[in-house]
Amino acid sequence: MPEITRDVQMVQIAYQCDECGEGLMIRKDNVMFTIDPPQFPHKCNKCGFEAILTSSYPAMGYRQIIKSPGI
After folding, report:
1. For the chain, counts of helices (H) and of strands (E)
2. Are 52 and 42 in contact (CB under 8 A)?
3. Domain boundaries, the chain
4. Would you state the pLDDT for residue 68?
5. What digits encode the pLDDT tens for the residues 36-66?
6. CA separation for the pair 56, 51 (Å, rounded)
7. How far apart are CA 28 and CA 57, in angstroms?
8. Distance in angstroms (rounded) separating the CA atoms of residues 37 and 32
9. Are strands 40-44 and 25-27 parallel, antiparallel or unpaired?
10. 38 or 69, greater pLDDT
């Protein structure tokens, strides 16, 4: 199969605090619990709420850029 290319944009993925709803969860001390799935301790940068999450935040991701036809 031939390769294809697409235009993408890099985006930051953040996790909003479940407790205060205003702050963002930030990974604590670069710690990872090696269980299946791995878990990461986080702390809210506004209220200090702590939680264990199965992804590390903030994270980076990609979004495909969709171009409108005929423009």
Report:
1. 0, 5
2. yes
3. 8-64
4. 80
5. 999 999 999 999 999 999 999 999 999 999 9
6. 11
7. 10
8. 10
9. antiparallel
10. 38
